[in-house]
Amino acid sequence: MLAPVKRRVNVEGVPRLPAFSHAVLVGDQVYVAGTLGTDADLQLVDGGVRGETLQALAYIKRILQECGASLDDVVKVNVYLTDMSSFEEMNEAYMSVFGDHPPARITVGCSALALGASVEIDCVAVLTTDR
Fold this sequence. Notes:
- The protein is of the alpha+beta class and 131 residues long.
- It contains two helices and six strands; from the N terminus they run E-E-E-H-E-H-E-E.
- It has helices at residues 48-66, 87-98, and strands at residues 6-9, 23-26, 29-36, 74-81, 104-109, 119-126.
- Strands 1-2-3-6-4-5 form a six-stranded mixed β-sheet, covered by helices on one side.
- Strand 2 (23-26) and strand 3 form a beta hairpin.
- Helix 1 packs parallel to helix 2 (87-98).
């Protein structure tokens, strides 16, 4: 049996460190790397956890589009927060993007994130043929 084709994806205009790709497609699955709420110069956006969450999800949306997917195709999200007391703020921003039918998700408290971020988000999506 042949292994599925693997393709690395990087999106022009979405910041990243050179140590990873924005996403990797394997068969019909899209694995989006941990994404921070930064500007093009890798500086955290204004607005605290809410601003960082919205920016990270906007980048994820662009990455998914480059892969031929959308937020509707996301099946699992991992959210990392440096301060669990900001959960509600993150969750409100998250729900404003995903709406009433969000994917499966876990939110994990952690002591620190790259670049001093307050939130980092990654996800897995499955490409569907009903487009």
